[in-house]
């Protein structure tokens, strides 16, 4: 192999490498990419602080309380999901219906058993997906064995 061929190959390798680097730079800039130090910042979404208690003691499981921050306009359902609980919910004509939380489900302890919620000690005529929370609200999800026996 001649020295002239080796130089030409080296030149072509550098040329191909340079072309690849330019293509990469163009694709990053076309996608709006920026170095991490220049990443655009977004304004923080306003949040509210709420407390969520999950009380399955009627199902012989300990109650837990979790404080969560949720976006303004969040619902009782949003706050429940934010706790990290395993939530089994379904849509209905009334709104979102919570059928189970952390493995404790409707009808596990009889045909009238299931989950009810209160906000600040008051029950609601709205679905959990329709009740918009305010800062400082305290939500309690209670598992009952007979929802007809509650007030």
- Gross geometry: elongated
Query: How large, in whole angstroms, is the Cα Rg?
Result: 28 Å
Distance between the termini: 95 Å
Strand element count: 8
Instruction: Estimate nothing, just give the exact number of structural domains.
Output: 2
* Helical content (DSSP H or I, runs of 4+): 10-25%
CATH top level of the largest domain?
Mainly Beta
Produce a short descriptive summary.
This protein has 151 residues and is α+β, with helices and mostly antiparallel strands. It has two helices and eight strands.
Textual characterization of the structure:
The chain is α+β, with helices and mostly antiparallel strands and 151 residues long. The protein folds into 2 domains: 3-38; 47-149, Ferric Hydroxamate Uptake Protein, Chain A, domain 1. It has helices spanning 3-30, 76-82, and strands spanning 47-55, 64-71, 87-91, 96-101, 104-105, 114-119, 122-123, 138-144. The longest helix is centred in the first third of the chain and has 28 residues, at 3-30. The N and C termini lie far apart (95 Å).
Keywords:
Ferric Hydroxamate Uptake Protein, Chain A, domain 1, 151 residues, disordered N terminus, 2 helices, alpha+beta
């Amino acid at each position: 192999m001649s020295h002239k061929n080796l130089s030409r190959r080296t030149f072509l390798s550098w040329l191909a490498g340079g072309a690849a680097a330019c293509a990469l730079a163009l694709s990053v800039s076309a996608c709006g990419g920026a170095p991490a130090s220049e990443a655009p910042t977004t304004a923080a979404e306003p949040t509210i602080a709420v407390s969520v208690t999950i009380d399955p003691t009627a199902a012989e499981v300990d109650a837990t309380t979790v404080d969560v921050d949720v976006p303004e306009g969040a619902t009782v359902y949003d706050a429940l999901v934010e706790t990290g609980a395993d939530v089994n919910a379904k849509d209905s004509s009334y709104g979102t219906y919570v059928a189970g939380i952390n493995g404790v489900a409707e009808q596990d302890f009889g045909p009238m058993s299931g989950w009810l919620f209160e906000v600040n000690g008051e029950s609601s005529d709205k679905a959990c997906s329709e009740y918009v929370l305010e800062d400082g609200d305290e939500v309690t999800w209670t598992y009952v064995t007979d929802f007809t026996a509650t007030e």
